[in-house]
Design brief:
single chain, Spore Coat Polysaccharide Biosynthesis Protein SpsA, Chain A, 60s Ribosomal Protein L30, Chain: A, 2 domains, two-stranded antiparallel ribbon, 8 helices, 24% helix
Length: 281
């Protein structure tokens, strides 16, 4: 039986999305999009293991939602994927972007059915529109729109990732190395969420739940002599301040904890730990 792992890439910054929120954190009913996608794929196939690539600043928060393996993303898709592959020894690996939020069950099972040694299997769609390249029309019959998820032989993918050349997906990496890339019929349902207007094209997405949320925050610090006193963001004349890694502003910190708690985002200690020099003072 084929052993297959799943890697979900969810470390992006959503620079083209056009909304203030990152797309992986858009809520689908009562869960963020990355978790919605993860649970959907989990429900289709029993993967040997699952690795989620997360933004280093968000990885602690993501771990509070799920017990799968989380790894920090890198500066490129190549580096992020290499980080994830260190955690699997399966025969094959399926890589999906969180932006491919509505992958049909039939498409995922078809990928798995076509798994072959040394191969990369990718879904592709034909192009129906007239296309121009560099100011001139080209034969659309020769064009394919490549989608994710993509299935690759794990050992081959690990070896190919050692190249310094950048790539946009696994199929490009395999093709440039002279390896076999097999195409299967893709699905319009697996549309990629890149821009905010794409949201209306993704039929599987759900409206966020509309319930009141409550949060409670508390913060306590002892005093420290010869340190500035800041309370609720206002400097106060005092021979002592709050002993803390930061300014120790108990009022602001309690308010932040209340807001984070109401949002289901942990607490200030998780997001800004006092053992990280970046947050000192």
């Amino acid at each position: 039986m084929k052993s297959i792992s799943l890697i979900l890439l969810a470390a992006g910054n959503s620079t083209r999305f056009g909304l203030s929120a990152k797309k992986q954190w858009l809520y689908q009913y009562d869960k963020p999009l990355w978790l919605f996608v993860l649970e959907h794929l989990q429900s289709i196939y029993r993967f040997e293991n699952i690795i989620v690539v997360a933004n280093p600043q968000e990885i602690t928060l993501m771990r509070s939602f799920s017990s799968v393996t989380f790894v920090p993303g890198g500066s490129s898709r190549q580096e992020s994927l290499s980080n994830a592959l260190k955690h699997t020894q399966s025969d094959f690996v399926i890589v999906n972007d969180v932006a491919r939020s509505c992958v049909p069950k039939e498409l995922l099972l078809k990928l798995i059915e076509h798994a072959k040694a040394l191969h990369c299997v990718v879904p592709a769609l034909k192009v129906s529109d007239t296309c121009y390249f560099d100011g001139a029309p080209i034969e659309r019959e020769k064009l394919l729109r490549i989608q994710t998820p993509q299935l690759s032989c794990t050992t081959t993918l690990k070896e190919l990732l050692k190249t310094a050349e950048e790539f946009s997906d696994e199929s490009t990496l395999f093709f440039n190395a002279g390896k076999c890339v097999e195409f299967i019929e893709g699905s319009t349902d697996a549309h990629k969420l890149t821009y905010k207007d794409d949201l209306r094209l993704l039929r599987c997405l759900q409206t966020p739940i509309n319930l009141p949320r409550n949060g409670f925050g508390i913060d306590i610090h002892s005093f420290e002599e010869n340190k500035p006193m800041v309370l609720a963001g206002i400097p106060i004349e005092s021979p002592f301040g709050f002993k803390a890694h930061s300014d120790g502003d108990v009022a602001i910190h309690a308010l932040i904890d209340a807001l984070l708690g109401a949002s289901g985002l942990g607490d200030i200690g998780e997001l800004f730990p006092d053992n990280d020099p970046a947050f000192k003072n």
